[in-house]
From TrEMBL:
UniProt record similarity statement: Belongs to the SEC15 family.
Organism superkingdom: Eukaryota
Compositionally biased tracts (Polar residues): 221-230, 254-263
Protein name: EXC6B protein
Keyword Transport: yes
A single BP term in Gene Ontology: intracellular protein transport
InterPro entries found in the cross-reference section: EXOC6/Sec15, EXOC6/Sec15_C, EXOC6/Sec15_C_dom1, EXOC6_Sec15_N, EXOC6PINT-1/Sec15/Tip20_C_dom2
GO-annotated cellular components: exocyst; plasma membrane
Domain (Exocyst complex component EXOC6/Sec15 N-terminal): residue spans on this chain: 47-216
Gene that encodes the chain: Exoc6b
Keyword terms: Coiled coil, Exocytosis, Transport
Exocyst complex subunit EXOC6/Sec15 C-terminal domain ranges (all copies): 416-712
Start and end residues of each stretch annotated as Disordered: 221-265
């Protein structure tokens, strides 16, 4: 058993030795560990030493066999050693030289390395700057646009900057600063554009007067042109082409919407080659701030806010414009300025309506116009009621018509204004009546109530040209001669015609029919005759110092004026082209007026005669107790009869009814004589029947009888 184990151990040791001999030195560790793991490592060491000795003996044998070759080899090796030393020295020297020479190369290589690094950095920097420079350029452009107040392009630049350029370089700090500033820039653009809008609103508020004045001038020019065309149809074709060209130009502008800050907002531009051309009303205001602000707010999504603000501010301005000055009624300029401001306001709004899409709409404009119309009409009713000068009322009417025509040209309904003018027409008639009342008073007060003397043919024709008078017998008479009427007849007649002309002036441009104009003139003329002239004649007749001669002349004058009424009818017919036979045509009441005045003058004659008779009778001093009568009639009665004789001689001048060669043959003369005789007889009877006369003598009765007989003669 022991022998068997010894054999196994020996075999194991032999294997390990072979393995040590054949195995790489680096891998011998596990083999040796197996020796030390066992208990026979002493025996293994013995075996190992025995193996070493065997190998030493083999080496010695080998060396002894190859000794000469070994010596030769050593000799060769020593030679090689010398050569190697030389080679080493050469290599060392070469290396030293190489090192010396390589220092500059190394320095150059380091420099090249640094250059390459710098080049790479520069290239990277250029690439980054290529991305950053457009951003910076856009930002600089943005600042320049904002500085030059080109806010709409600035907003577009901001949009490009935010959505196109900044995302490419968003990791840089300056880009983050820009991104943070974008809302502030938007708000700044918004505020600045709103500031421009406020300046614009303030500007148009100040320029409304001038805009309206220009628009009304254009309307006046157009109306004058239309009048010329209507009077001279031959030139209408030439004018029409220009008018159509202007209309097409205006239509083109109205159908275009502003798209840049360069839009000036002008409605139309008149032909610059035409002399004395009134500039367009919109040429006075630059509308670009409105367009820019509208676009900016639209881009920012705040269009509704902008529209609301604009309309609110314009409503406030409308209320200010529609507030008339307290002294507007004093001068025409006050009305003109008021109308100019209103026209200017609505011209601007009409322009905004046609050059923007939705900033204002037709409903908004109509609402403003309804408010303006009601306030304007109310203001005109109030202030026109203060006007007492017919010339001012007429000028106001013309101004209102021009105001209405101007706004009608922009599409605003103005029928209510023309209706109101009919109300002002009544007031105009009243002011005319007041004015002509003064004119008639001056004519009647300054008249000498004597027939007009004529010394030559020229004066005769002049008077006949002023008053429609025809008398064949008077024409045959030689100069000098006299018209039967006094100077107030042609003067009154001409003033009536002037009044008719004044009424006609007011009816111009009111778009009334001929029948309406005719009716208006006739009604006003009737008021002039029945109220104004009638009152003036009555006042003259009733005044204290009027004499019988004057009353007789008034009767003559009113008779001729009564006959002239048919010529006034013809005059009105000629200027209105409405025949008197037309249905509903108003008739003139002049005949009644002059008849009433004549009757009043006749009554005044009768009254004055009776008063004179009473004055003479007051001089009667009868001695009712006289024993004998006098030899002649009483002195007072003789004087009274002499007065009556001279008075009735005046009646020979009465027209028509009175024969020139008879003393009293006409109706007025007869009535006056009958009235005087009746009054005288009644008064004489009263003298006898007075209570104070209690007794009288035969001589007193005989004297009284002499007086009565004198009256009978």
């Amino acid at each position: 058993m022991a022998e068997l184990e010894s054999l196994e151990t020996a075999a194991e040791h032999e294997r390990i030795l072979r393995e040590i001999e054949s195995t790489d030195t680096a891998c011998i560790g596990p083999t040796l560990r197996s020796v030390y793991d066992g208990e026979e490592h002493g025996r293994f060491m013995e075996k190992l030493e025995a193996r070493i000795r065997n190998h030493d003996r083999e080496i010695e044998k080998m060396c002894n066999f190859h000794y000469q070759g070994f010596v030769d080899s050593i000799t060769e090796l020593l030679k090689v050693r010398g050569e190697a030393q030389k080679l080493k020295n050469q290599v060392t020297d070469t290396n030293r030289k190489l090192q010396n020479e390589g220092k500059e190369l190394i320095i150059a290589m380091e420099e090249l390395k640094q250059c390459r690094l710098q080049q790479r950095n520069i290239s990277a920097t250029v690439d980054k700057l290529t991305l950053c420079l457009p951003v910076l350029e856009m930002y600089s452009k943005l600042r320049e646009q904002m500085k030059s107040k080109r806010h709409y392009p600035a907003l577009k630049t901001l949009e490009h900057l935010e959505h196109t350029y900044l995302p490419q370089v968003s990791h840089y700090r300056f880009c983050k600063v820009m991104v943070d500033n974008i809302p502030k820039l938007r708000e700044e653009i918004k505020e600045v554009s709103m500031s421009d809008l406020k300046d614009f609103l303030e500007s148009i508020r100040k320029h409304s007067d001038k805009i309206g004045e220009t628009a009304m001038k254009q309307a006046q020019q157009q109306r004058n042109l239309d009048n010329i065309v209507s009077q001279h149809p031959r030139i209408s074709a030439g004018k029409k082409s220009k008018k159509e060209a202007c209309a097409s130009s205006e239509l083109e502008v109205k159908n275009t919407s502003p798209v840049s800050e360069q839009d000036s907002g002008i409605l139309d531009v008149e032909d610059e080659d035409e002399d004395e051309e009134v500039p367009g009303a919109q040429d006075l205001v630059d509308f670009s701030p409105v367009y820019r602000c509208l676009h900016i707010y639209s881009v920012l999504g705040a269009r509704e806010t902008f529209e609301s603000y604009y309309r609110k501010q314009r409503r406030k301005q409308a209320r200010l414009v529609l507030q008339p000055p307290s002294n507007m009624h004093e001068t025409l300029d006050g009305y003109r300025k008021y109308f100019n401001q209103i026209v200017g306001f609505f011209v601007v709004e009409d322009h905004i309506l046609h050059t923007t899409q939705g900033l204002v709409n037709r409903a908004y404009i109509d609402e403003l116009w309804e408010m303006a119309l009601s306030k304007t009409i109310a203001a005109l009713r109030t202030h026109s009621s203060y006007c007492s000068d017919p010339s001012l009322v007429l000028d106001l009417k013309n101004l209102i018509v021009l105001f209405a025509d101007t706004l009608q040209g922009y599409g605003f309904p103005v029928n209510q204004l023309f209706d109101m003018l009919l109300e002002i027409q009544d007031q105009y008639s009243e002011t005319l009546l007041k004015k002509w009342s003064g004119v008639f008073r001056n004519i009647l007060d300054s008249d000498n109530y004597s027939p007009i003397p004529v010394t030559n043919e020229e004066v005769y024709k002049k008077i006949v040209g002023q008053f429609p008078f025809q008398d064949a017998e008077l024409e045959k008479q030689p100069f000098p001669k006299k018209f039967p009427f006094s100077e107030f007849v042609p003067k009154v007649y001409n003033q009536i015609k002037e009044f008719i002309y004044a009424c006609l002036k007011f009816s111009e441009d009111l778009h009334l029919s001929s029948t309406e104009v005719d009716d208006m003139i006739r009604k006003s003329t009737n008021l002039l005759l029945t109220r104004t002239l009638s009152n003036c004649l009555q006042n003259v007749i009733k005044r204290r110092n009027v004499g019988l001669t004057e009353l007789v002349q008034i009767i003559i004058n009113t008779t001729h004026l009564e006959k002239s009424c048919k010529f006034l009818e013809e005059f009105i017919t000629n200027i209105t082209n409405v025949l008197p036979e037309t249905v509903h045509t108003t008739k003139l009441y002049g005949t009644t007026t002059f008849k009433d005045a004549r009757h009043a003058a006749e009554e005044e004659i009768y009254t004055n005669l009776n008063q004179k008779i009473d004055q003479f009778l007051q001089l009667a001093d009868y001695d009712w107790m006289a024993l004998e009568p006098g030899s002649k009639a009483s002195d007072y009665l003789v004087d009274l009869i002499g007065f009556l004789r001279s008075t009735f001689a005046v009646f020979t001048h009465l027209p028509g009814d009175v024969d020139v060669h008879s003393t009293m043959s006409g109706k007025v003369a007869q009535t006056a004589c009958m009235s005087a005789c009746k009054h005288l007889s009644t008064s004489l009877m009263q003298l006898l029947l007075e209570a104070e006369v209690r007794q009288l003598t035969l001589g007193a009765l005989q004297q009284f009888n002499l007086d009565v007989e004198e009256c009978e003669r």
